[in-house]
Every structure is written in C-alpha cells, then in structure tokens.
Amino acid sequence: QVHLVESGGGLVQPGGSLRLSCTASGRTRPNYNLGWFRQAPGREREFVAAMRSSGRTELYADSVKGRFTISRDKTKTTLYLQMNNLKPDDTAVYYCAEDPGGILSSIRVWQHYDYWGQGTQVTVSS
User: Fold this and answer.
1) I need a surface site. Which of 2, 55, 86, 98 has the fewest CB within 10 A?
2) Which strand (E) or helix (H) includes residue 93?
3) Using one digit for the tens of pLDDT, what is the confidence trace for 47-65?
4) Which residue in 94, 77, 87, 117 sits closest to 39, CA to CA?
5) Cross-strand bridge partners of residue 118
6) DSSP string, the chain
7) What are the backbone dihedrals phi and psi of residue 23, each rounded to the nearest 5 degrees, phi first?
8) What residues contact 83, with CB distance under 8 A and at least 6 apart?
9) How far is Cα 107 from Cα 113, in angstroms, rounded to an integer?
10) Is 90 exceeded by the pLDDT of residue 28?
C-alpha cells in the first residue's frame, strides 16, 4: 500500500511560483508511473505532468509546458512540481498519484492511477 502526502499549495499572484511536494512511503514495486493531476470546481480532473520511475521520461500537458517542471529527489521518495509563471487558470486542487506497474501508454490517464495524495489547493489571484 503506497501512501502519498502532499504539501506546498497556497495563494499566489499571477506570474508567481510555487513548488508542490509529494512524499511516498510503502512502495514495493520497482516500475511505476508518477503523475500530477488537478481539478478545478465544476471541471474534470486533468493531467498536468508525469514521469516514469526510471526518470528518463517526462510528459506535460500543453497548458503547462514550459512553465511547470516535474522532478524527484535522489532517494526517489519525494516528487516535486515546480510551477512558474502561474496563471489564474492554474487555480485548482492538485493531486499527486502513483500507478504501480504503470505503462507509458496510460501515463496521462488518471483512472489508471491507484494511489493518490490528499490534494493541495493552489489559488492564483491578484
């Protein structure tokens, strides 16, 4: 049973930056997908960014490409989402997620992820 705990959300002005963190415990499988998703009020949960457990593949939604960066610490315990040049449309609850044994073709699909963090609110407003 993988347990994910998120931190780092908050209120920021347009153009500002935030870094989200997601710390994992209980992981037992060597290959998995890691993802960040978000959900705004009245909208579907959507893909933001993801990476393979190998760290060699990173994928981004077109809406965040060039502004957000997904990364992981050397211990492979903590996943990060660095968010720069934030816009009001980025306002949402952000979730980290893990898909044990996930494959590349399903990495953007939130329904394939088995484990989720509790979510953290990001609000971009002046």
Assistant:
1) 55
2) strand 92-100
3) 999 999 888 899 999 999 9
4) 94
5) none
6) --EEEEE--EEE-TT--EEEEEEEE----S-EEEEEEEE-TTS--EEEEEEETTS--EEE-TTTTTTEEEEE-TTS-EEEEEE-S--GGG-EEEEEEEEET--GGGTT-GGG--EE---EEEEE--
7) -100, 130
8) 17, 18, 19, 20, 64, 67, 68, 90, 122
9) 8
10) no
C-alpha to C-alpha distance for 5 and 120, rounded to whole angstroms? 10
Tokens found for residue 35: 């993802």
Looking at residue 37, its amino acid is F
pLDDT tens by residue, 62-118: 999 999 999 999 888 999 999 999 999 999 999 999 999 888 888 999 999 999 999
Q: What is the DSSP letter of 82?
A: E
Per DSSP, 108 falls in state: T
Q: How far apart are alpha carbons 24 and 118 in whole angstroms? A: 12
